[in-house]
Amino acid sequence: MRYVVLALLSIIINTHTKAQTLEETISKMGIELYAPSKSSGNYVKAFQSGNLLFLAGHVSTRADGSSFTGKLGKELTLEQGYEAARITAISLLSTIKNEVGELSRVKRIVKVTGFVNSTPDFTDQPKVINGCSDLLVAIWGDRGKHARSAVGMAALPSNYAVEIEMIVELEGM
């Protein structure tokens, strides 16, 4: 899987240099951003303070509403967890675009916190959250590298496989 990711990164970097916008780069990667759903509680999906955008926890749900549910180490494999984290990253990107208009306003990905619904003996949470981190680096290169936590949880809401929150720095106001 690592070689596939490295090959994909090389293709993306070469594609990105020719693309006019990050959205075009993302589209060439086969990723479609979508209008995010409304918050399901008394909170907002994103909040901007100065040049920082704080994103609430997003779960492993696709644009069509289907989702990755279950525990890593029981119902889900490491590969499925990686894909769940990648899907969650797409949800986060969709929220960023919705909040600030253009992904080109992202100066840097600052912090990613990943929560993995996993059994007590599952210890590959960082490999799962790589699904998010690898995508961010593929899109932004070094500006996509970030501080990160990846932790196991006894349970996540609605039995989602992954929940990720993120902090990004924005260009200008």
Quick structural gist:
With 173 residues, the chain is of the alpha+beta class.
What can you tell me about this protein's structure?
The chain has one domain (2-170): 2-Layer Sandwich (60s Ribosomal Protein L30, Chain: A), CATH 3.30.1330. Helix content is 36%, strand content 23%. It contains four helices and five strands, in the order H-H-E-E-H-E-H-E-E. It has a five-stranded mixed sheet with strand order 1-2-5-3-4, with helices on one face. Helix 3 crosses helix 4 (125-140).
**Mean pLDDT over the full residue set:** 90
User: Got a strand count?
Assistant: 5
| Structure class | alpha+beta
The residue ranges in which pLDDT falls below 50 over 5 or more consecutive positions are 15-19
Helix and strand sequence: HHEEHEHEE
General form = globular
Distance between the termini: 39 Å
Quaternary: single chain
CATH superfamily: RutC-like
Instruction: Please write the CATH class name.
Output: Alpha Beta
Tell me the number of helical segments per DSSP (H or I, 4 or more residues long).
4
% residues in beta strands = 15-25%
Q: How much helical structure, as a percent, in the residues?
A: 25-40%
CATH topology: 60s Ribosomal Protein L30, Chain: A
**Numbering strands along the chain, what is their spatial order in the largest sheet?**
1-2-5-3-4
The figure for the number of domains is 1
Q: Over the alpha carbons, how many angstroms does the gyration radius reach?
A: 15 Å
* Major sheet description: 5 strands, mixed
CATH architecture: 2-Layer Sandwich
